[in-house]
């Protein structure tokens, strides 16, 4: 343990001589900021914005951070709804990732208002111990998780280069830590041929829909040879304009998921060849356009996961450990770069599934509010546990896996 004496929270003196002292301080800070944290969650929930358009959410998050004394880095991300802020100047840089994008028509049906407020709450709690534990609290606004993967853009722009560990929690129906996710990529596909009258001169046409049908059949047959746990989904978004005209254009969207980014690359190669087969057989041209960034699989850090799990016990939560992959997230890319956690913080949703209006309806409930507060404490406590453990501190400063 590391003992320290310093000033935190509105001038109060904070003495840290044990994990119990740290937990008491963090809990006190979460409670002190409770109105701001929950107001933030409710405001984002009531005003959903799509990925890359989360301007009002960003303004709200930044307002709370400024109130707490955070400063905004001189260099900011190019994405208009991403940002970088920090508090303190310690050697252990703890990044809290703030998601705030919603889904079309059904709002915060993935609970990102809970995710956002929890990350902000953890950052606020850590301000009370940052000086004593030699921590820099870094808050990264990470847009468009549901679509293009804003965290990948921040990685490529260098905003995780100084980060020692990264954290966020995700809203859900139960408390779980340790889970993985599937690597994922999406492509928009365009076949172009030549139109002709389907009855008077069909031989003059080059049928783009034929190309798509052949490609779809090839993909269906290729599924047998895909790595276990892989998923390929395809929908036709354009297949012609009139039944008596040979289609000159056909469009589709294809989504590929795999247990790892390496396996995803194998699948991408196979699916690319299936699409090329359709173009070759029909005489059409083919254009494949990536739809956002590729997502890597999530790797949750064992030490930080255990520390989070233990901290949540203090909040009366029994957090299960389950390493099974669930869905896909750009937090996976972060976890490939620095030790990370992405636990699920649970509340009663009456059996509703993610990405449904029914799930969204519970996002500002009393249960969701408690999840926000508990998730804030759990992440802050896990970061402090690492900062107070000499061996783990050394590992994290080197960004090394367990």
Q: What is the topological layout?
A:
Layout: E1 4-8, E2 12-16, H1 19-32, H2 34-46, H3 55-67, E3 71-72, E4 83-87, E5 92-98, H4 112-126, E6 135-141, H5 150-156, E7 165-167, E8 170-172, E9 176-177, E10 183-192, H6 208-222, E11 231-238, E12 249-258, H7 261-282, E13 285-290, H8 302-314, E14 320-321, H9 331-337, E15 340-341, E16 344-346, H10 357-360, H11 366-387, H12 390-397
Parallel strand pairs: 5-6, 5-7, 7-15, 8-16, 9-14
Antiparallel strand pairs: 1-2, 3-4, 4-6, 10-12, 10-13, 11-12
Helix pairs in contact: 1-4, 1-11, 2-3, 2-4, 4-11, 6-7, 8-11
Main β sheet profile: 6 strands, mixed
Find the CATH superfamily of the largest domain.
Zn peptidases
Helix tally equals 12
Q: Give the termini separation.
A: 20 Å
The CATH C-level name of the largest domain is Alpha Beta
Number of individual domains = 2
- Lateral strand order in the biggest sheet: 3-4-6-5-7-15
Q: How would the global form be characterised?
A: elongated
Q: Helix-strand pattern, N to C?
A: EEHHHEEEHEHEEEEHEEHEHEHEEHHH
Mean pLDDT: 94
Any overview of this molecule?
The chain contains twelve helices and 16 strands. 38% of the residues lie in helices and 20% in strands. The model is unreliable at 1-11 (pLDDT under 50). Strand 1 and strand 2 form a beta hairpin. By secondary structure, it is an alpha/beta fold. It folds into two domains: 4-181 and 295-397, Zn peptidases (Aminopeptidase, 3-Layer(aba) Sandwich), CATH 3.40.630; 185-290, Alpha-Beta Plaits (2-Layer Sandwich), CATH 3.30.70. The protein has helices spanning 19-32, 34-46, 55-67, 112-126, 150-156, 208-222, 261-282, 302-314, 331-337, 357-360, 366-387, 390-397; strands at residues 4-8, 12-16, 71-72, 83-87, 92-98, 135-141, 165-167, 170-172, 176-177, 183-192, 231-238, 249-258, 285-290, 320-321, 340-341, 344-346.
């Amino acid at each position: 343990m590391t003992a320290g004496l310093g000033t935190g929270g509105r001038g109060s003196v904070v003495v840290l001589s044990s994990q119990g002292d740290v937990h008491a301080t963090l809990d006190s800070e979460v409670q002190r900021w409770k109105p701001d944290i929950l107001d933030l969650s409710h405001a984002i929930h009531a005003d959903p914005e799509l990925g890359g358009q989360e301007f009002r959410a960003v303004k709200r998050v930044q307002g709370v951070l400024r109130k707490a004394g955070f400063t905004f880095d001189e260099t900011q991300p190019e994405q208009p709804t991403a940002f970088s802020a920090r508090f303190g100047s310690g050697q252990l840089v703890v990044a809290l990732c703030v998601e705030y994008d919603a889904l079309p028509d059904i709002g915060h049906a993935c609970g990102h208002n809970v995710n956002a407020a929890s990350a902000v709450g953890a950052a606020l709690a850590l301000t009370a111990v940052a000086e004593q534990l030699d921590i820099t609290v870094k808050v990264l606004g990470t847009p468009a998780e549901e679509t293009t993967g804003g965290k990948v853009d921040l990685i490529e722009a260098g905003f995780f280069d100084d980060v020692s560990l990264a954290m966020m929690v995700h809203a859900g129906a139960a408390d779980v830590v340790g889970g993985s996710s599937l690597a994922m990529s999406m492509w928009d596909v365009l076949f172009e041929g030549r139109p002709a009258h389907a009855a008077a001169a069909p031989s003059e046409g080059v049928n783009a829909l034929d190309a798509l049908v052949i490609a779809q059949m090839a993909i269906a047959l290729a599924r047998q040879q895909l790595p276990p746990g892989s998923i390929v989904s395809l929908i036709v978004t354009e297949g012609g304009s009139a039944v008596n005209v040979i289609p000159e254009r056909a469009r589709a969207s294809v989504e590929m998921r795999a247990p790892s980014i390496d396996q995803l690359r194998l699948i991408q190669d196979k699916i690319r060849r299936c699409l090329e087969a359709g173009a070759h057989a029909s005489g059409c041209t083919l254009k494949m356009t990536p739809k956002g960034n590729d997502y890597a699989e999530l790797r949750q850090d064992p030490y930080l996961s255990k520390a989070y799990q233990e901290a949540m016990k203090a909040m009366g939560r029994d957090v299960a450990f389950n390493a099974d992959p669930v869905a896909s997230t750009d937090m996976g890319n972060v976890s490939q770069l620095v030790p990370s956690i992405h636990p699920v913080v649970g509340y009663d949703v009456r059996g509703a599934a993610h990405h449904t209006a029914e799930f969204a309806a519970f996002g500002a409930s009393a249960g969701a509010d408690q999840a926000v507060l508990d998730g804030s404490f759990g992440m802050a406590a896990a970061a402090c546990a690492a900062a107070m453990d000499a061996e783990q501190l050394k590992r994290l400063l080197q960004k090394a896996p367990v």
